[in-house]
Amino acid sequence: MEFLFYMGDVFMPINFGLLMIGTIGGLILGATPGLSPTMAVALLIPFTFQLEAAQGLILLGAAYTSTVAGGAVSAILLKIPGAPANIATTLDGHAMAQKGEGAKALQISFLASAVGGVFGVLLLIFLTPVLAQWALAFGPSHLFWLAILGVTVIGSLDGRSVIKGLLSGCIGLWLATIGFDDIMGAQRFIFHPSLGGGINIIAALIGLFAIPQVITMFASGRHDDGAEVIKVQKHPIGGAIRELFRNKRAMGIGTVAGSVIGLIPGVGGQIAGLVAYDQSKKFSPDRDKFGTGHPEGVIAAESANNAMVGPSLVPLLTLSIPGSPTAAVLLGGLLIHGIFPGTDLFDNHPDVAWTFINSMLIGQILMCLFGLYVAGLAARVAQVPQSVMAAVVLGLAVFGSYSVQSSMGDVYVMASLGVMMYFLERFGFSAAPLVLGLILGPIAEANFIQGSMIAKATDGVGPYFMTGGLNLFLITVVVASVLYSAYMELRARRYSSKEEILA
Amino acid sequence: MSAPSLPRLQHIIGSGIVAIVGVWVAYISYTQQPAEAFLFPRLISSVFVVLALWTFSKACLGWTKVGQGISARQFINLLPGLIVALVYIFWAAKGLGFYSATTLAFFILLSLYDPAPHGSFKTWGKRIAITAVFMIVMYGLFAQLLTVYTPREVLF
Description:
heterodimer, A: about 500 residues, mainly alpha, two-stranded antiparallel sheet, 2 strands, about 0% strand, globular, B: about 160 residues, 5 helices
């Protein structure tokens, strides 16, 4: 119950103010189609430099939580999911809005998000310290395999092609080696003076997530977005609460599915929402009503996508392995304050760790309260034309990456990586494994070198890295995740080929 | 034998570039000294080059299933914006100063991609107003709040 000791810190005026700013800003950003939670958090990092570590994380955590929930606004009122996590919400949410139940849909979506989110954060609170203690037993070889696991799991599960996902991870791992070697001081792959200090993670994150989105907006050309916002009529909040209690089954399925899926690295809110929606439909006596504006669909999808937020941070805070691109961005936010997650975080910086986690708990409730009032404004923001959004995001990306170290080199790196990522994405590569490779590369290399030194003095490199229960377990998981994804990819292709033939 | 289709050709070029980078990374990793500094790069470049060559071979054989490539229409749409963005980032931001360059780039991009008609004074006024509001916000955030000192050459 250590977290209760630090609960008061969340209510300090500056912390609470940042929590409110992050929550309201996140709700608005989340409602904006094209601004994913990861990109929103990446663009916010430069604003945390001058804050203390806990304050910076409160802002980023609040933005992460509320962008996921805010995406429901545009999903319900415009039929455009604000984030991939809100795709399932669109199915019934927009149909409810068309039937004149827009306010009710928004209310139940925020209430379900808050319930799911609180459960997810409680899971984070109770699971994290236990796993962090367990992680103390990890040696360099285990941490090396864990870092490789982080890249391969996301590489194989995230994209549509296992080979391209793993190749993206390799590109990220290679990019992480650019600069001076830590031990020998040797120059590695420095083919431009801007790369002398290596690739700055924050600039890289901004480039990899923001610039492809900007170019995608350019590629759609001059067109009228024409998204029509459905006007909402007033609806008593008590009615929405009663609706939530009437649909306890959908609430439970969404919350449990989201929490479990959140713990698996690489599986995002989009999967959580769709799985919860599908399962609720299967178990519902009113399954025929799904897709026609049925509250159960909205409740299941929204409780799931917010329930996964807390558990998705468990691998990051315990093992230093970000389980999702947004967790990777949050890791960047921790590293700029010189804080390394894992056992170090809870032993040496418990105030930072617990204030951050507690703020996510309080943030869920604030998100629910503000969401109901900000929804109208957020829907208007969602109508901002893509031409304006592209120019705004480009400006923020340039200023944000420059402000990391007041270096033009970081701006060039941001732009180069961003343009490269756009073209790679067009050819089926994915940004998430590349980012994970870039972030986990230094962890993997440091532990590989350290492990090699120990191995040379003991049983040799092969036995040190390839034997032992935990090593073998991690290697098995790495291989199994790749094989499973390859099998699923082949199966999906076989089915799509059959459909093509039958069509 | 017929010529490869546009998406297939794009995949060959794209995966070919990735394969060249992979081979170059592997070559540097295995030839540069001191060897200890390149131990980890050797490990990852070996996997990198195998996966890259595999992807390239698949593209050459037309077996690539994932990735839509870029249509001619998309390329024509994105080209002006990309050129403006690259000139802004790689030259104007430092040459003209951050705020002047951002004002120009923002206004040009807005004008290029805004679906509103170009012949109306009202829409031009709207674009100027949006640019001005954006720059005021950026100046307030970065120059005043975060006190980031950016290159300043022309005007501010």
